[in-house]
């Protein structure tokens, strides 16, 4: 029998004994602390308190949105509105918003009970009265207000003032 098949073969590439990387222990990949306890505390305190301080300063300088009164009159009424065919009128529950300012009010948004919203595309002109069907107000998930199902407890109207601030008018019923 031949012994060539049972003899071990030497490795083809020999490792040099003079290479220093061979004798070094393996590098650790575990995370090591980079900050001291005090440094970590200061970093977390900064992340928490800087935004809080910034927002507080902003509120002091610019005030709350409700501090800027929007000069409009808000009424709940029943008025005759044209039908889809346009040849007759039906009595319908409406919200009436009248601009009492001497400037037009752009970006007018309204909401009923803080849940049902309506956005007016065109600015509310000086002295203009806007008559809106209550059934036109909808939630963000497109569920429409049904007049008479629930009472209206509050109506909020917001719009842009000439100063650029957001004016707010809130009426409780």
Task: Describe the overall structure.
There is one protein chain. By secondary structure, the chain is an alpha+beta fold. The chain folds into 2 domains: 34-63; 66-172, Immunoglobulin-like. It is 15% helix and 29% strand. The protein is built from 1 helix and 7 strands. It has a 4-stranded antiparallel sheet, with no helix packed on it. It has a 3-stranded antiparallel sheet with strand order 1-2-5, with no helix packed on it. The longest helix is centred in the N-terminal third of the chain and has 26 residues, at 37-62. The protein is elongated and about 105 Å long. The N and C termini lie far apart (109 Å). The model has no long low-confidence stretch (mean pLDDT 84).
> Helix count?
1
Radius of gyration: 36 Å
Shape: elongated
**Number of E-type strands:** 7
Unreliable stretches covering 5 or more consecutive residues: none
Taking the alpha carbons of the first and last residues, their distance comes to: 109 Å
Largest sheet: 4 strands, antiparallel
What's the level 1 CATH class of the largest domain?
A: Mainly Beta
Looking at the structure, the CATH topology of the largest domain is Immunoglobulin-like
Helix and strand succession? HEEEEEEE
User: Structural class given helices, strands, pairing?
Assistant: alpha+beta
Percent of residues in beta strands?
A: 25-35%
Assign a percent range to the helix content: 10-25%
Strand order of the largest sheet: 4-3-6-7
Number of domains: 2
Keywords: Membrane, Transmembrane, Transmembrane helix
Transmembrane segments: 40-61
Region (Disordered): 1-31
Biased composition (Low complexity): 1-17
